[in-house]
UniProtKB/TrEMBL annotation:
It comes from the Bacteria. Keywords: Iron, Metal-binding, Oxidoreductase. GO terms for molecular function: 2-oxoglutarate-dependent dioxygenase activity; iron ion binding. Its EC number is 1.14.11.39. Belongs to the clavaminate synthase family. This is L-asparagine oxygenase. The keyword Aminoacyl-tRNA synthetase does not apply. The gene is asnO. The keyword Endoplasmic reticulum does not apply.
Amino acid sequence: MHLPNAFDAAELPTTPEAFLPLPNSEGTLLARASSIAALATLGLDTVSYGSENTGALFVNLVIMPGDGYFPEKSRSSMHGHTDAVSFPVRGRFDNEDARIAPSPDFVCLSGLRNPANAETTVMPLSEILPQLTHDQIAELKKPQFIIRAQGTFRDGTESILGEEHQVDGGELLFDVEGKLWVRFSHSSAGADEEEGAAADAVEAFAAACKARADGIAIAPGDILLVNNRIGLHGRTTVEGEAGGESRWLLRTYGLDTASLDPQQRYEDSAHKLFP
Ligand SMILES: [Fe+2]
């Protein structure tokens, strides 16, 4: 759901160079208030996870200077994925730790700057599934995949849980009330064996994802809400140098929290989920 000109991206400082801190200014306040209002309209609470960026409710998505995992990721294109991929979908529990909260229902991106019109890509599951055979879909529903925590959750889950969160024997597609839900990441989810029906199904899914990607340039003042259950998202390459007036989005998550267990939250926060 693309909401053009949802807020006035006015009065912005120079673009930050890290996920945090998030500068206080009129533009970032309007982006945050509009994001929370948009998610509330969908019946969702705005949430974060203690294991990602210390549980900050909003983070900067910006070009980061230097080399290394996060700076390189901040500029490169990103294949289709769902966010918080190793966490269960809403209504299910992690096999080993019932305290782990569900991944978000929606990813909410708000645009502050996008000088080169870098595109966010979205891939609806409804366009991916027709590219797959019945047998491939059946494979993806089996609890047989290894799912590693998304990059931004690795250090945080390790320090909170004692080891990086990983699912051994998880599904990628779920039957939920007559519909299919997805969790997937090209880089963090895959089959145990490199060959065989499971690996082939993952490869077919990834190829269908690539073929069905739609690009959306999030302009200053726009909000993009991506359904994290029936859609995947990614990004094209981001050009430019860190800081200055370079690309700057804010990101937060929305979740229907009605069925959350108290142990999936932190007592000291209204929005931060475990881990
Ligand atoms: Fe993402």
